[in-house]
């Protein structure tokens, strides 16, 4: 049996966001994304943990937003070292005992052993957490038995279903940035038993040799074959190591961390139209990116006449497109990072990606280079 199968990850259950401004998070998730608050920490749990938490859910995606009410709680300790950001990822597993034995056998570092808690509906919630090679981000593994409860101490919130012209499906991938990818890559391989499935290295120096500035990265993608979850890890690439986008994230985040989470939706075009109306901000891809799109896709074996999406519409909405033979493609768009959106460093450099896969299971490899080149050309045009 393969190592990743022995761990037995079924999928991502939720991710945990620590913030100082819960009212702003509510506006973003409820009013912006149209997600519903589905669970809240009970008063008893809030008093016990020192932090107040709300679970927002869109389709199969759940985020826990926690705010400190005591300086000694987990959220407060995280926020004393970092801006707002993701402090933990929770994975559902087939068998909690097997996952524990597998990870301990591969020298994982547990934060606590397996905890069993009876839920109010008569079921059992079992979980444990471990440290990671992603700075202060922890991983939690959980198993629910005969319960629909989100987690012990949470109370269900009655909410109405929202009708929208698109659907959130699941977390597609989780991307992290680090000063060096070696530690997280090796940790995921040797502790979690994951496998490398993709890599890329790119720098704008490739297209503008001898420039005064530039940005680049090296990236590997690790994945868990059973669940299909993928984990890109980026590191800065010299020259201009310190000025590059990846190192800037590490500095703004005060260390390694989760840069963005990609959310799979069934209709990116309608998602962008709807979310823009809801005042959700997106990266403004320069016009020059779209000038080379037909030729770039043709080089990658994609016939633009066979696409289900119109290139002029993608251009209008600033949506990126990439593909691979034969006529498989994906479209993706990146939201504005929080610190830029709110003009506040404490809001953090984290952002979301929306992705729709039309037969392409990759990572928009062509978009890495094309977008970097487009930004570089647009900067040249501004300076001329």
Give the overall shape, derived from the CA principal axes: globular
Topology as H/E string? HEHEHEEHEHEEEEEHEEEHEHHHHEEHEH
Q: Name the CATH superfamily assignment of the largest domain.
A: 2,3-Dihydroxybiphenyl 1,2-Dioxygenase, domain 1
Total number of strands: 17
The radius of gyration is: 21 Å
How many domains would you count in the coordinates?
2
Instruction: Report the sheet with the most strands, covering strand number, pairing sense and barrel closure.
Output: 9 strands, mixed
CATH class of the largest domain: Alpha Beta
Provide a count of the helices: 13
CATH fold name of the largest domain, please? Answer: 2,3-Dihydroxybiphenyl 1,2-Dioxygenase, domain 1
Ranges where pLDDT stays below 50 over 5 or more residues in a row are 1-5
Structural class: alpha+beta
Strand order of the largest sheet: 6-7-8-5-1-4-3-2-9
Q: In percent, how much strand structure appears in the residues?
A: 25-35%
Share in helix = 25-40%
Mean pLDDT: 91
Return the CATH architecture of the largest domain. Roll
For the record, give the distance between the C-alpha atoms at the N and C termini, rounded to a whole number. Answer: 60 Å
């Amino acid at each position: 049996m393969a190592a990743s199968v022995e761990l037995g990850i079924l999928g991502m259950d939720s991710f945990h966001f620590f913030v100082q401004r819960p009212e702003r998070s509510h506006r973003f998730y409820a009013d912006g994304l149209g997600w519903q608050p589905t669970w809240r920490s009970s008063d008893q749990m809030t008093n016990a943990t020192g932090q107040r938490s709300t679970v927002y859910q869109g389709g199969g995606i759940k985020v826990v937003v926690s705010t400190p009410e005591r300086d000694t709680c987990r959220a407060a300790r995280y926020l004393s070292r970092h801006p707002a950001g993701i402090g933990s990822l929770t994975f559902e597993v087939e068998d909690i005992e097997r996952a524990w034995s597998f990870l301990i056998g591969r020298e994982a570092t547990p934060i606590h052993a397996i905890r069993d808690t009876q839920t109010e509906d008569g079921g059992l919630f079992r979980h444990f957490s471990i440290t990671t090679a992603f700075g202060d981000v922890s991983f939690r593994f959980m198993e629910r038995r005969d319960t629909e409860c989100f987690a012990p101490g949470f109370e269900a919130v009655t909410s109405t279903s929202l009708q929208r012209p698109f659907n959130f499906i699941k977390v597609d991938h989780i991307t992290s940035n680090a000063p060096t990818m070696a530690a997280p890559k090796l940790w995921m391989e040797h502790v979690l038993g994951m496998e490398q499935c993709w890599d890329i290295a790119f720098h704008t120096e490739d297209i503008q040799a001898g420039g005064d500035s530039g940005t680049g990265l090296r990236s590997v993608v690790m994945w868990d074959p059973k669940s299909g979850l993928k984990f890109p890890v980026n590191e800065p690439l010299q020259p201009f190591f310190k000025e590059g986008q990846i190192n800037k994230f590490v500095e703004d985040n005060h260390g390694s961390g989760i840069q963005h989470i990609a959310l799979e939706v069934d209709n990116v075009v309608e998602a962008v139209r709807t979310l823009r109306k809801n005042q959700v901000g997106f990266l403004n891809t320069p016009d020059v990116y779209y000038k080379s799109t037909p030729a770039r896709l043709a080089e990658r074996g994609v016939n633009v006449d066979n696409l289900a999406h119109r290139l002029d519409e993608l251009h209008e909405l600033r949506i990126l497109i990439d593909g691979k033979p034969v006529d498989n493609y994906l479209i993706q768009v990146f939201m504005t990072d929080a610190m830029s959106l709110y003009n506040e460093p404490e809001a953090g450099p984290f952002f979301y990606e929306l992705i729709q896969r039309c037969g392409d299971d990759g990572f928009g490899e062509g978009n890495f280079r094309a977008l970097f080149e487009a930004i570089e050309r647009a900067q040249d045009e501004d300076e001329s």
